[in-house]
Structure formats: structure tokens, C-alpha cells
Amino acid sequence: MERPLDGIRVIGMEQYMAAPYCTMLLGDQGAEVIKIERTGRGDARRSIPPFVERGGVRKAGGFMSYNRNKKSVAVDLSHPKGQEIYRALAATADVVAENSRPGAMDKLGLGWPQLRDVNPRLVYAAISGFGRMPGREGPYGRRPAFDIVAEAMSGIMNAVGFADKPPSWTIYGMADIYSGMVTAWGIMLALFVRERTGRGQLVDSALFDNMLALNERMVTLYSVAGQPTNRGELRVMYPRGAFLCSDGYVALNAPDDTTWKRLCAAMGREDLVDDERSRDGPSRAANAAFLDPIIEGWLGGLTRTEATDRLNAAGVPTGPVYTAEDVFADPQVAARGMLMPVTDPQLGAHRFARTVPLMSEAPDLPAEPAPDLGQHTEAVLHDLLGYDGAAIRALAEEKVIQLAK
């Protein structure tokens, strides 16, 4: 049984999170991913905690997580011979995915304008803060950006948290992870088009664009009703949020009057269905101060499990607010195989989040550990580009490449 991307070769000119997550998605589905790293230090993510240590070996957990199922080639792209290696690799590839600072690869003569001449079938996926499509760069196109900048400027941070508190970030790296997913989808579209036309193309993925698209509810609300989205403020529906039980929180949502009626029945408060303060979404939102103690008082006498079971049985979708410990112990997570074990030869087995979706006609995901810096430099240069042993040793002596220790 073949994986969906068997036979596809990807060059990952990548660092940190967005592009590495994108290429990991491709590698998990069978693509050959050749990760290009700078000599000496490699991907900056190799030096960012938390670290796993054993027997004098130390590796970064984030790097281990986002770089499984890849080969590492360490090459100095500031050297003409290193640039020659990169061009030769791109000539053999189906995809290049990179998240270098805008303009950096072009200055080296290794960007999309140059590589499409080397390989007209190449799909070139560029991830940046604000976009690089010629003619669509906008005034921010050359700005650097981390994920939190995209969260802020897309309006997402302004909607997260409470009215009496500052705007809040969401989960660490959400813009990077989501952009990696969007970019992988764009690559799939470009490969599909290539099957029809025989030509590659530029896939332009901007963190800012991606987070703004994700925040479509804010856009729609303002466009249709002229209403801004304010932190901690529900205007058209209630309840929605986390509510305290005797042993932690559950999350529930009553987006319509039918669900609200079911919640009232579960609480034994059918009188609230026709109460003018709670008969519809806007009324409930306006009277949250009246309703909060009622809901919290009922839930406070139940455990998370009891509340979840009762409300789900009543037709009110509810789930406990999990900690990491809860996630690792959850039987649904285990049944779905969402924490896949990856065994590092030096550090042993650790569980990392499985990429999605599951597919009925493909084997389960491969689980090769993240590579050591330069682990595959020699093999790739020899097997793929035809360099002999003497040439590889000479390049290593010139510090154009770095071989595995």
C-alpha cells in the first residue's frame, strides 16, 4: 500500500516552525523531505528549549517534534559551491518549501525567479509574514514576522481574553502551525495543477493572510452588521465558555434556543426557557450576570465527568477542559493514535502529536526520528547528485558542507 506522496521530493529550506511543520506534513504522507540546514548550528530550533537529555546527548524537543521523517543536509549557501549544490537539488525536486526572510534567497540567486528556470516543474512554496507574490507584496511585504505578530494584526488577539484585561495570545505557534497546514494544502493544489499543465508555480503563504482568513467570523460580523468583536463579550448567544465543576472546568455552548432548552431541562430549570431574560440568544447574552450563577451553581455540584455525561446525553455538546496530563491519559486520544511514538536512537521513545487526517487507503504514518545535523549530507550528495567520495571530502574540508559526526 502506497502513501499519498510516495515519489515526491521536497527541499525544505526551513527554520523555526512554519515551513518545518509544512514539510513534516508532506513527509508523514510519504514525500522524501531533504532539510537544508546551515553548517555549524543548523536550524535555530535545535537550540530552543525544552531539551531532552540522556547520556550526554541533548536535543531540542520542538525540533524533534517538527522534523521527523526528514533528511538533513548541512550546506553553506553563502559559498558558490554551496549554491551550486542547492540548485542541483532543486533541479531534482518537485517542491521547495522555504520560510527565509523575504528577499534572502533571491539575493543568493536561489529564489523562485531563478529556480523556475532551473526546473519549470518546480512548486515553490514561500512562507512569510505578509506575502511575496509579485505585485501583491503590499507595504509590509519585507517585514519580518513571528506568529504573535500575525495573531495581533489579524484581530485574533483583540478577541481573546476578557474586556478588563489586555489582548491575549492563543497557543504558542498557532499562526506557524496553521500556516504550515495551509501551505501544505497549497502545495497539493499546485501539484494537482501540474498534473494538468506540466508546470510548477509559486505558492505564496502569508502568516497575516492565514490568520485573517481563520478569523472570518470577525470579518463577517463587521462586514454584515458593522459590529466589532470585543474580548469577553457575547452579543448574540449564551452560554459559551468554560464553567467550573467540582474538579475542574467543562466547556459548553448553546448556540441556539433548542440547545438552551436542553440545557435547562438537564439542570431542572425549565422555567428559564420562557423567561424574558433568557428566552433567546441576545437576551441570554445581555443577562449573563443573572444566568452565570445558576449554571455555575448546578455544575459546581458535579464532577467534570458527571457534567459531561449528563449534558452530552441531553444533547448539549460538552467536554472537559483538559490539561496535558488529561490528554495523555484520554482513551479517545489513544483509540485515534493521536500521540504517535517516535524513537530517537540516542534518547529513546517519546510521543508526539500525529498529523491528520486519517486515510483508509494509506498505511499508518512513518516514524523516523528527526535527523542529526548533516546526517544525510554525504548520502544525498553521492546518491542524488553523483558526487564521489573525494569530492565530498574536499567540500567538507572547505567547510562548504558539514557531515554527520
Describe the structure concisely for a colleague.
With 405 residues, the chain is an alpha/beta fold.
Structure description:
40% of the residues lie in helices and 17% in strands. By secondary structure, it is an alpha/beta fold. The protein has 2 domains: 276 residues, Rossmann fold, CATH 3.40.50; 82 residues, formyl-coa transferase, domain 3 (2-Layer Sandwich), CATH 3.30.1540.10. The strands form 4 sheets. It has a 7-stranded mixed beta sheet with strand order 8-7-6-1-2-5-14, with helices on both faces. Strand 3 and strand 4 form a beta hairpin. Helix 1 packs across helix 8.
Low-confidence parts, pLDDT < 50 over ≥5 residues?
Answer: none
Structural class, by secondary structure, is alpha/beta
Provide the number of structural domains.
2
| Oligomer classification | single chain
Strand content: 15-25%
CATH superfamily of the largest domain: Crotonobetainyl-coa:carnitine coa-transferase, domain 1
Give the helix proportion (percent range): 25-40%
Rg to the nearest angstrom? 25 Å
User: How large is the count of helical segments?
Assistant: 18
CATH topology of the largest domain: Rossmann fold
User: Average pLDDT across residues?
Assistant: 95
Major sheet size, sense and barrel closure: 7 strands, mixed
Number of strands: 14
